[in-house]
Write a structure and sequence with these properties.
Blueprint (H helix, E strand, L loop, with lengths): L7 H7 L1 H11 L3 E4 L4 E2 L15 E5 L21 E5 L6 H6 L9 E5 L6 H5 L9 E5 L7 H11 L4 E3 L4 E3 L1
Parallel strand pairs: 3-4, 4-5, 5-6, 6-7
Antiparallel strand pairs: 1-2, 1-3, 7-8
Protein backbone atom coordinates (compact mmCIF):
# COMPACT_ATOMS: atom_id res chain seq x y z
CA UNK A 1 0.00 0.00 0.00
CA UNK A 2 3.04 2.23 0.36
CA UNK A 3 3.02 3.14 -3.36
CA UNK A 4 -0.65 4.09 -3.25
CA UNK A 5 -0.59 6.90 -0.71
CA UNK A 6 -0.25 10.40 -2.14
CA UNK A 7 2.74 12.49 -1.16
CA UNK A 8 1.62 16.13 -1.15
CA UNK A 9 5.19 17.41 -1.37
CA UNK A 10 5.81 15.24 -4.42
CA UNK A 11 2.60 16.47 -6.07
CA UNK A 12 3.66 20.07 -5.41
CA UNK A 13 7.14 19.40 -6.83
CA UNK A 14 6.25 17.53 -10.04
CA UNK A 15 2.60 18.47 -10.59
CA UNK A 16 -0.57 16.40 -10.35
CA UNK A 17 -0.29 14.64 -13.72
CA UNK A 18 3.26 13.37 -13.18
CA UNK A 19 2.50 12.35 -9.58
CA UNK A 20 -0.62 10.51 -10.73
CA UNK A 21 1.35 8.74 -13.49
CA UNK A 22 3.98 7.72 -10.94
CA UNK A 23 1.25 6.25 -8.71
CA UNK A 24 -0.26 4.24 -11.56
CA UNK A 25 3.06 3.01 -12.96
CA UNK A 26 4.54 2.07 -9.58
CA UNK A 27 1.51 -0.12 -9.03
CA UNK A 28 1.70 -1.91 -12.36
CA UNK A 29 -0.74 0.16 -14.39
CA UNK A 30 -0.33 2.03 -17.67
CA UNK A 31 -0.90 5.63 -18.71
CA UNK A 32 -1.48 7.51 -21.92
CA UNK A 33 -0.38 11.13 -22.16
CA UNK A 34 -2.42 13.79 -23.95
CA UNK A 35 0.08 13.65 -26.85
CA UNK A 36 -0.88 9.99 -27.40
CA UNK A 37 2.29 8.43 -26.00
CA UNK A 38 1.68 5.34 -23.89
CA UNK A 39 3.80 4.33 -20.94
CA UNK A 40 3.90 1.13 -18.89
CA UNK A 41 7.36 1.37 -17.31
CA UNK A 42 8.01 3.70 -14.38
CA UNK A 43 11.69 3.87 -15.33
CA UNK A 44 10.79 5.44 -18.68
CA UNK A 45 8.97 8.45 -17.23
CA UNK A 46 10.05 11.71 -18.88
CA UNK A 47 12.25 14.13 -16.91
CA UNK A 48 10.59 15.73 -13.91
CA UNK A 49 11.11 19.18 -15.40
CA UNK A 50 8.50 18.46 -18.11
CA UNK A 51 5.51 19.66 -16.12
CA UNK A 52 3.53 20.37 -19.27
CA UNK A 53 2.71 16.67 -19.79
CA UNK A 54 -0.94 15.93 -19.13
CA UNK A 55 -2.56 12.55 -18.46
CA UNK A 56 -5.32 11.47 -20.81
CA UNK A 57 -5.92 7.84 -19.79
CA UNK A 58 -5.19 5.45 -16.95
CA UNK A 59 -5.29 1.70 -17.38
CA UNK A 60 -5.36 0.09 -13.95
CA UNK A 61 -5.91 -3.41 -15.35
CA UNK A 62 -4.13 -6.20 -13.49
CA UNK A 63 -2.47 -3.61 -11.25
CA UNK A 64 -2.31 -3.00 -7.52
CA UNK A 65 -3.72 0.53 -7.48
CA UNK A 66 -6.13 0.87 -4.58
CA UNK A 67 -8.43 3.36 -2.90
CA UNK A 68 -5.51 4.91 -1.05
CA UNK A 69 -4.25 6.59 -4.20
CA UNK A 70 -7.33 7.88 -5.98
CA UNK A 71 -6.84 11.39 -4.63
CA UNK A 72 -3.99 11.53 -7.17
CA UNK A 73 -6.72 12.21 -9.75
CA UNK A 74 -7.30 15.64 -8.23
CA UNK A 75 -5.73 18.26 -10.47
CA UNK A 76 -5.45 16.07 -13.59
CA UNK A 77 -7.32 18.44 -15.89
CA UNK A 78 -7.20 16.41 -19.13
CA UNK A 79 -7.85 12.92 -17.73
CA UNK A 80 -10.72 11.41 -19.72
CA UNK A 81 -10.58 7.65 -19.26
CA UNK A 82 -9.95 5.10 -16.51
CA UNK A 83 -10.07 1.34 -16.96
CA UNK A 84 -10.23 -0.78 -13.81
CA UNK A 85 -10.17 -4.41 -14.94
CA UNK A 86 -9.13 -7.53 -13.04
CA UNK A 87 -7.89 -5.69 -9.98
CA UNK A 88 -8.49 -7.32 -6.59
CA UNK A 89 -7.60 -4.07 -4.78
CA UNK A 90 -10.40 -2.08 -6.38
CA UNK A 91 -13.32 -1.94 -3.98
CA UNK A 92 -16.19 0.40 -3.14
CA UNK A 93 -13.79 2.89 -1.54
CA UNK A 94 -11.80 3.06 -4.78
CA UNK A 95 -14.95 3.57 -6.85
CA UNK A 96 -15.92 6.42 -4.50
CA UNK A 97 -12.43 7.80 -5.07
CA UNK A 98 -13.27 8.32 -8.75
CA UNK A 99 -15.05 11.47 -7.58
CA UNK A 100 -11.63 13.15 -7.54
CA UNK A 101 -11.88 13.05 -11.34
CA UNK A 102 -15.56 13.94 -11.57
CA UNK A 103 -14.99 17.15 -13.51
CA UNK A 104 -12.96 15.52 -16.29
CA UNK A 105 -13.72 11.80 -16.58
CA UNK A 106 -15.90 10.86 -19.55
CA UNK A 107 -15.12 7.13 -19.86
CA UNK A 108 -14.89 4.59 -17.02
CA UNK A 109 -14.70 0.82 -17.13
CA UNK A 110 -15.07 -1.36 -14.04
CA UNK A 111 -14.87 -5.07 -14.77
CA UNK A 112 -13.68 -8.26 -13.15
CA UNK A 113 -13.13 -6.46 -9.85
CA UNK A 114 -14.24 -8.94 -7.20
CA UNK A 115 -14.53 -6.42 -4.34
CA UNK A 116 -16.93 -3.95 -5.95
CA UNK A 117 -20.54 -4.15 -4.72
CA UNK A 118 -23.85 -2.51 -5.63
CA UNK A 119 -23.40 0.47 -3.27
CA UNK A 120 -19.92 1.02 -4.69
CA UNK A 121 -21.16 1.16 -8.27
CA UNK A 122 -23.85 3.63 -7.27
CA UNK A 123 -21.11 6.00 -6.01
CA UNK A 124 -20.39 6.79 -9.67
CA UNK A 125 -23.58 8.87 -9.82
CA UNK A 126 -21.38 11.93 -9.11
CA UNK A 127 -19.44 11.50 -12.38
CA UNK A 128 -21.72 13.90 -14.28
CA UNK A 129 -19.44 14.16 -17.33
CA UNK A 130 -19.48 10.44 -18.09
CA UNK A 131 -20.50 9.58 -21.63
CA UNK A 132 -19.41 5.92 -21.48
CA UNK A 133 -19.56 3.51 -18.55
CA UNK A 134 -18.65 -0.14 -19.04
CA UNK A 135 -19.59 -2.61 -16.29
CA UNK A 136 -19.25 -6.39 -16.41
CA UNK A 137 -18.00 -9.48 -14.59
CA UNK A 138 -18.56 -8.04 -11.13
CA UNK A 139 -19.26 -11.12 -8.96
CA UNK A 140 -19.99 -9.18 -5.74
CA UNK A 141 -22.64 -7.03 -7.43
CA UNK A 142 -26.03 -8.55 -6.60
CA UNK A 143 -28.20 -6.65 -9.08
CA UNK A 144 -26.21 -5.17 -11.97
CA UNK A 145 -29.35 -4.32 -13.94
CA UNK A 146 -30.69 -2.22 -11.05
CA UNK A 147 -27.31 -0.48 -10.64
CA UNK A 148 -27.26 0.36 -14.35
CA UNK A 149 -30.79 1.72 -14.16
CA UNK A 150 -29.93 3.85 -11.13
CA UNK A 151 -26.79 5.23 -12.78
CA UNK A 152 -28.57 5.74 -16.09
CA UNK A 153 -31.28 7.84 -14.46
CA UNK A 154 -28.67 10.05 -12.77
CA UNK A 155 -26.27 10.20 -15.71
CA UNK A 156 -28.52 10.97 -18.71
CA UNK A 157 -25.61 11.70 -21.11
CA UNK A 158 -23.96 8.37 -20.33
CA UNK A 159 -24.19 5.18 -22.37
CA UNK A 160 -23.92 2.27 -19.97
CA UNK A 161 -22.56 -0.90 -21.51
CA UNK A 162 -21.99 -4.44 -20.32
CA UNK A 163 -20.76 -7.66 -21.87
CA UNK A 164 -23.77 -8.23 -24.06
CA UNK A 165 -26.17 -5.37 -23.95
CA UNK A 166 -25.94 -1.62 -24.10
CA UNK A 167 -28.35 0.59 -22.19
CA UNK A 168 -29.05 4.21 -23.16
CA UNK A 169 -31.33 5.88 -20.63
Amino acid sequence: MMFNKPDMNRIKTVGPDRACAEWVLRNGGKVTWADGKKLADYNLLPPEELKSLKLLEIDGSDSSISHYGFSHLDGCTMLKKIVLHNNKYIDDRAIKGLEYGKDVLSHVQVSKCINVTDPGLKEMIVLKNLTTLILFDLPSVQNLAECKQYLGSGLPKCEIKGEVESVKV
